[in-house]
Amino acid sequence: MGRVHPKKNLGQHFLKDTAIARKIADSLTGAGYSTVLEIGPGMGILTGYLLERGFSDFRVIEIDNESVHYIKEHFPELNNVITGDFLSMDIDKFFVEKMAIIGNFPYNISTQIFFKVLKHREKVVEITGMLQKEVAERICAGPGSKTYGILSVLLQAFYKTEYLFTVPEHVFSPPPKVKSGVIRLIRNDVKNLDCDETLFFRVVKACFNQRRKTLRNSVRAAFDLKRDDYPEFGLRPEQLSVDQFVQLTRWIDENRIKSE
To answer: Considering only 57-66, 80-89, 207-216, 239-248, which range has the smallest mean pLDDT?
Structure first.
């Protein structure tokens, strides 16, 4: 078993099962990158196995000073320990090459981590992480699922998402009240969506913000339209694939009153 972290704040539950830690570290494919960033290493239960992988540029970022001290003391071969908050990090300043991100993500910021990855999708070509099972399932859910939502559509537009395995509560300290899930996202071949991407993000969010309503109601509430005859207006947002959201965005772009 791994060491237990003395601090229990920052919204984080620290993994103590070394077999699971190795399995998570081994989930990185290593394809198309040699730079890896671990978010929130804590006491380094993943860090040791990631060092064994032999990535030529391996770095960690940790917001907790006690953890930073521990990592530097126990992993002297790790030269790149960044003290700071990943959500405030300037990825383009720190990283030049294509990269992967991995971590046991704190539950309270996991969604924000993935939204940040989206903004840097041309640089972050792979991300493997452990997060709350409910959020992990939502990211990987397909059309028709009750958990399919904003994060599912936006991430799946640019990444292949895979739910790898479930992690039980008792392998953490302190144990969370819910199970965790490990997922892997690999950048797909989509360079640009076949629509206005800024509008695409707006459309997806507008539709799922009123997910119980039909597309007609949610779209009309968010945009001033010249027409009201989109053929899929009778559907609800969870019924649309990524490609259908792209088509809907193009139709809205062509038929909205531009002064809105």
So the answer is: 207-216
Q: Kindly report the CA angle at 254 between 200 and 196, in degrees rounded to 5?
A: 30
Q: Which residue, chain included where needed, has tokens 């360079």? A: 191
- Spell 130-142 as b/e; 16+ CB within 10 A means b: bbbbebbbbbbbe
CA-CA distance, 199 to 206, in Å (whole number)? Answer: 10
* Domains of the chain (ranges, CATH numbers): 14-187 (3.40.50.150), 197-255 (1.10.8.100)
pTM over 0.85: yes
Cα–Cα distance, 108 to 110 (Å, whole number): 6
Tens digit of each residue's pLDDT (9 = 90 or more) over 144-190: 999 999 999 999 999 999 999 999 999 988 888 889 999 999 999 99
